[in-house]
Amino acid sequence: MHLSVLQSGFCLTQLRPEVRKSHLDLTKLQLKVRKSCLDLTKLQPEVRKSYLDLTKLQSKVRKSHLDLTKLQLKVRKSCLDL
């Protein structure tokens, strides 16, 4: 049993560099995630503005559609009058 404990200690000692590397990799990944979150936060106002622009455009399209519908009715009426 004493030998297996020593072997385990030896394996853990050899594992440490890998664990350190993994820890550094995770730290780097964490920094990338933080940067991505900041980038997304910066992008959020632009997305809101784009959404507002699209909403305004949608209103214009609806108005144009109504105008076209009215025009279509006028054309039909004119055709009937002819």
Describe what you observe in this structure.
This protein is mainly alpha-helical and 82 residues long. The chain is rod-shaped and about 105 Å long. The chain is 98% helix and 0% strand. The mean pLDDT is 84. It has one helix at 2-81.
Please name the defining characteristics of this protein.
single chain; 82 residues; mainly alpha; 1 helix
Detail the topology: elements first, then pairings.
Elements: H1 2-81
Summarize the structure.
Helix content is 98%, strand content 0%.
| Major beta-sheet overview | none
Number of helices: 1
Strand content: under 5%
Order of helices and strands: H
**What share of the residues lie within helices?**
over 70%
Low-confidence stretches: none
Distance, first to last CA: 108 Å
Q: Structural class of the secondary elements?
A: mainly alpha
Mean pLDDT comes to 84
Count the beta strands: 0
State the shape. Answer: rod-shaped
